[in-house]
UniProtKB/TrEMBL annotation:
Residues 6-66 form the HTH tetR-type domain. InterPro entries: DNA-bd_HTH_TetR-type_CS, Homeodomain-like_sf, HTH-type_TetR-like_transc_reg, HTH_TetR. The lineage of its organism: Bacteria, Bacillati, Actinomycetota, Actinomycetes, Mycobacteriales. PANTHER family: HTH-TYPE TRANSCRIPTIONAL REGULATOR RUTR (PTHR30055), TRANSCRIPTIONAL REGULATORY PROTEIN (PTHR30055:SF235). This is TetR family transcriptional regulator. Gene3D superfamilies: Tetracycline Repressor, domain 2. SUPFAM superfamilies: Homeodomain-like (SSF46689). It comes from the Bacteria.
């Protein structure tokens, strides 16, 4: 699969975005995308590999710029979990009112829920990077547990922002507080009782 940034590749992304927006993801075929872009019928396969991979490339291209700079500037030794969550959620608040932005949220939710092994390539679409940041902020939290917390957090965030109706300010506040509480909960080892140590 080519990873070039050729004009054809960009035209395929723009055409797919337009068709997904007007007809819905499921109704759009690879052939229709190629035809709409004025490209060879095999162009999607050549540049992306599949329709799903085209969709994930589209999401990375459109969503990464929304938060990449702010996330890169976060100092995990000083920043709070609340500040990190705010960086994540704030762009979603803005784009949920835009038809194209809402489409991106719906597609992202689709792939997170239905395609957990979707072929992501961007750094900020990898849970391991998010887990590393959370581990640096929350004491005694293991990487695997941090990864599970983020998986649950993103699932909740996306399910709410991809709904048909935009979230109200109060709903955004409640969602943010809930996610911050879940991610930032201090990790305490579970108490294990050894039956053999209990005297009869």
């Amino acid at each position: 699969m080519s990873v070039s940034t050729s004009p054809t590749r960009e035209q395929l992304l723009r055409t797919a975005e337009r068709l997904f927006l007007t007809d819905g993801y499921d109704a759009v075929s690879v052939r229709a995308i190629c035809a709409g872009a004025g490209a060879n019928p095999a162009a999607v396969h050549y540049h992306f590999g599949s329709k799903d991979q085209l969709a994930t490339a589209l999401l990375e291209a459109r969503l990464t710029p929304l938060w990449a700079d702010q996330l890169m500037s976060i100092d995990t030794s000083r920043a709070s979990v609340a500040a990190l969550v705010d960086v994540v959620i704030s762009p979603f608040v803005e784009i949920q009112h835009d038809p194209a932005g809402h489409l991106h949220l719906q597609l992202l939710a689709r792939f997170v829920h239905a395609n957990p092994e979707a072929p992501w390539h961007g750094a900020w679409f990898d849970l391991d990077r998010w887990a590393d940041m959370l581990v640096a902020m929350v004491g005694a939290l293991g990487h695997d547990q941090a990864r599970r917390r983020w998986a649950l957090a993103f699932e909740l965030i996306l399910s709410r922002f991809s709904a048909e109706r935009p979230l109200s300010d109060d709903a955004v506040t409640s969602l943010t507080e809930f996610v911050v509480a879940g991610l930032g909960q201090p990790c305490t080892p579970a108490t294990v009782t050894n039956p053999a140590a209990v005297s009869s």
